[in-house]
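As practice, study what follows.
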Amino acid sequence: MRLHTHTWGEGDRVALLIHGIMADHRTWRKVGPALAERGYRVIAVDLRGHGASGRGEYSTELFVDDLVETLPADAELAIGHSLGGLALSLAVERLRPARAIYSDPAWNVNSEQEVVGPEVFVQLKSASREMVAGFNPRWEAEDVDIELATLRLWDENTALGLAPMFGADMVPAKAVVPSLVQFADGSFLYDATEAARLEARGFEVRTVKGAGHTIHRDDFEGFMASLEGWI
């Protein structure tokens, strides 16, 4: 499936942005322009079932194939958040970016916790403003507005299609290209043991102190600072 994309900038250097579940390209409203100011032509997708992209069947494999069909290979930079990080890692051999950044990627959901299912995400489809703001106390009001708008557009069946990943260990065996894994300090996905495992597999690991799972919205300045040397 060819995905809807949004572009910032006109630079010769290409950067790719891949959002997480329930979001769309608007989650990158600060990151896209910031990279464009650094000379990148920034291309952000709406994954299938999200934003302005098409609907249909849903599986991890289909998310990955869509990225390969839509995005240019050999970009200078690719950043994936959460589900976007998982999809990027599975597409990276075909997309071949010069550098990959995985922002709190959904590689190991529930690895050390009681396993929950996709129905948890489905329930968030009807989240109220108060709930979104309460879950994300550091977000700006505009980000809360965007989250509510994207939830209205989001097809909750995407979560059901991803059921096999819940409780599965999907951590890559190695860093295929030079790769940074960016952890949220308050991540529900990772701990020091997991960080050590990733470093042993060739990934650089950095933590953004005080940030929650959606680092680029919780602490934009901290997000960008943690990318020093990578962008």
Q: What stands out?
A: The radius of gyration is 16 Å. The beta strands are 5-8, 13-18, 40-45, 77-81, 100-103, 179-184, 204-208. Residues 111-115 have pLDDT under 50 and may be disordered.
